[in-house]
Write a structure and sequence with these properties.
Helix content: over 70%
Shape: globular
Number of helices: 17
Distance between the termini: 24 Å
Low-confidence stretches: 1-29, 242-246, 251-255
Order of helices and strands: HHHHHHHHHHHHHHHHH
Number of strands: 0
Largest sheet: none
Length: 460
């Protein structure tokens, strides 16, 4: 009997394919080409993270005084960052909700709904009255919409990278999965491209008064485009709705429960915890760089906001440039070597990166952030394939989402709050480096404990 090529997946013959002679079988749906699926997933993650980055930047610049006025700038900033963290608390709800939809009803449907929810919440923030106009109702509405953003994000990342990975040809899974994984950095760059002109043309006073709403309202246009793009791609070849309810042949794996998150926690607790740890340090680097430092550096060190936005943007662009080559390397030599390189580099570079803020020199800060975000790309580019590969197809949406989102919540969502508290006691940017380096060390140890997944079967 001839041997099948490596990574070949045997697909079951459908009942229509075995129809009697003369019976007309319905045409099988045409699968969307893998590159188009990856681009469609990228569009969605970019829009979702644009919305998230706009909120993060606004929380650093204006939401504190607008919705939580006080006589103390630190207190107002803490309140604004608390609403930023609130979305991360809501993300596990999104994992449970969209993970169940994605694992039982389809990846495509879950992604469509998550993007729609994000669009409604983000545009809603742009329409909110401030504390001066509505009193306590204003922060209550802000927190409510922020929680909805968090629920949406709980289902976005896992579904986007999974849809791309499950459409990918053999030997290129990390490459295709990394394309939507560039969405966080692209979303930040897009948000900066909107916020900087808005801030510079109208001036700081106009931005504080009303022009901060423009980036939020522009999200409506982006979401419409994203929904249209996502409506044109096919469902993942590793999933069909019939799999969730159809009887299984003798000897096939037992069907999972109707609540995939519960099954995940009971059957794969070790892999889930190690997966969370593997993404923990990178989450801290990302959110401390593009959210916290935009507020901390101008307020505590007198560095201009434009300098910080420019440094973060250049670093994010460099990270994007490294994403695809790093993923292609991960397809050739394995996920762990590339991720371990990024983790070791991040542990060693964390203190020098944030120490650069003490120089108050824009060129030095930009260079330090660029190195840091390139190292982050080495950690996060392969993780888009690595985390889904840790779990079987029937739990893959929930498993990948839970690991990444909980890492984001623990390592990123609370990072601005922890950093604000640390600096209120020590008042030095070095403390940011030690905090971030410690979390990256946790990621390094978790990666060492996890297996290589490059050759794992992905069809079951």
């Amino acid at each position: 009997m001839p041997q099948l090529p490596p990574n070949t997946t045997l697909k079951a013959v459908s009942p229509t394919a075995a129809a009697p002679s003369g019976a007309e079988a319905p045409a099988a749906p045409t699968a969307t080409p893998a590159p188009r699926v990856a681009v469609a997933s990228l569009v969605g993650t970019t829009i979702e993270y644009y919305d998230f980055a706009v909120y993060g930047t606004a929380s650093a610049l204006v939401l504190g005084p607008a919705f939580f006025p006080s006589g103390n700038a630190t207190v107002s900033s803490l309140a604004a960052f608390l609403t930023f963290a609130a979305a991360f608390v809501a993300r596990p709800v999104g994992v449970a909700l969209f993970g169940t939809i994605g694992d039982r009803l389809g990846r495509r449907r879950a992604l469509f709904l998550s993007l729609m929810l994000m669009g409604v919440a983000t545009v809603g923030v742009g329409l909110l009255p401030t504390y001066e106009t509505a009193g306590l109702l204003a922060p209550v509405l802000l927190v409510t919409l922020r929680l909805l953003q968090g629920v949406s994000m709980g289902g976005e990342w896992g579904g986007a990278v999974l849809l791309a990975a499950e459409h990918a040809p053999p030997g290129r899974r990390a490459l295709y999965a990394s394309i939507p994984n560039a969405g966080p950095s692209l979303g930040f760059l897009l948000s900066t491209a909107v916020i900087l002109p808005t801030l510079n043309i109208g001036g700081r006073d106009a931005f504080t008064d009303w022009t901060w709403r423009i980036p939020f309202l522009l999200s409506a246009v982006l979401v419409v485009v994203g929904l249209w793009v996502r409506a044109t791609v096919s469902e993942s070849p590793a999933f069909t709705p019939a799999e969730a309810s159809a009887p299984r042949p003798e000897g096939a794996p037992a069907p999972e429960s109707r609540f995939p998150l519960g099954t995940l926690v009971t059957r794969y607790p070790g892999r889930l915890l190690l997966g969370i740890g593997a993404a923990l340090g990178g989450s801290a680097v990302y959110y401390l760089t593009i959210v916290y430092s935009l507020s901390y550096a101008p307020q505590a060190l007198g560095i201009s906001r434009n300098t910080m936005l420019t440094a973060a943007s250049v670093g994010a662009a460099a990270g994007i440039a490294v994403t695809l080559p790093a993923a292609r390397l991960a397809d050739r030599i394995g996920r762990r070597p590339v991720m371990l390189t990024g983790a070791v580099g991040s542990v060693l570079w964390a203190v020098p990166m944030y120490a650069s803020l003490s120089t108050r020199d824009g060129w030095v800060i930009t260079g330090a952030y660029t190195v840091g975000l390139v190292l982050l790309a080495l950690m996060f580019s392969p993780v888009a394939a690595f985390l889904p590969e840790l779990f079987p197809a029937r739990l893959r949406y929930t498993g990948a989402s839970a690991a990444f989102i909980l890492a984001n919540t623990l390592g990123g969502g609370f990072a601005p709050l922890v950093a604000t508290w640390l600096n209120s006691h020590w008042g030095s940017p070095l403390v940011l480096g030690f905090y971030t380096g410690g979390l990256c060390l946790v990621s390094l140890l978790c990666l060492l404990a996890l297996p290589e997944t490059r050759d794992h079967e992905f069809a079951v």
